[in-house]
Write a structure and sequence with these properties.
The protein is an alpha+beta fold. Helix content is 30%, strand content 22%.
C-alpha cells in the first residue's frame, strides 16, 4: 500500500485518461491505496465537460498539444462512420433540456497511420 505521508494529493483531470485506459485496473489501483481521484470525482469532472454536436474543438486542441508523440505518429486519416447508440431520452443538466432519442449518430474520426490510435473529432 502506498503512503503519501499524510499529504494531500492534487490531481488534474488527466486522471480521467487513466480510468479510460482501463477501468478495472483503475479500481484495482484505488483498492491498493494509490492516491487517485475517486470514481465519483471522475464522474463529476466528466459532467462538467460541455460536449455539443459539431466539431469537438477541445479534442483537436488536445491532439495538437500531444507532446509525447513524434510528428510522424500524429499523421492520420479522417474518416466518417455511423454508430448505433441507445435510443433514450437524456436530460442535459448544462442546457437544462431534454435531448431526443437517436438510434444512430454520424461521427468523424481521426485514425493514426503509423501509430495505433483513433479519436472522434465530430
Amino acid at each position: 500500500k502506498l503512503e503519501n505521508g499524510g499529504k494531500s494529493v492534487q490531481w488534474n483531470r488527466d486522471a480521467i485518461f487513466f480510468h479510460a485506459a482501463g477501468p478495472r485496473a483503475y479500481r484495482h489501483l484505488i483498492k491498493k491505496g494509490f492516491p487517485l481521484p475517486s470514481l465519483s470525482t471522475l464522474d463529476r469532472w466528466l459532467h462538467s465537460v460541455d460536449i455539443q454536436p459539431g466539431i469537438l474543438n477541445f479534442v483537436i486542441s488536445l491532439m495538437e498539444n500531444a507532446v509525447d508523440m513524434d510528428e510522424e505518429d500524429k499523421m492520420c486519416i479522417l474518416y466518417f462512420d455511423e454508430m448505433k447508440v441507445a435510443a433514450n431520452y437524456e436530460y442535459d443538466h448544462s442546457l437544462e433540456a431534454v435531448q431526443k432519442p437517436r438510434e444512430y449518430v454520424q461521427v468523424a474520426m481521426a485514425q493514426g497511420l503509423r501509430m495505433s490510435w483513433k479519436q472522434p473529432i465530430y
